[in-house]
Description:
74 residues; alpha+beta; 2 domains; elongated
Amino acid sequence: MYELNNVTKQRTAKGADTVFAQEKKFLQPTRIMMDVGVTKTSKDDKYSLIYVKSNYYSVPDYLFGNELMLKSIQ
């Protein structure tokens, strides 16, 4: 990988390491990921349905009887 980064490009006559070092000072810091959803646990009924905010949603059969973690974004 080191060899690929040091190969000079025809257009810029610079290697990838050199170009990245020049551009690095203009990059903004990474942002913190924020969790904006509401998380709750629910258990499905005998018809493999869960009830969320006045709506029923189906659940795959292999998850029947398990507690499910739900995440809703408002």
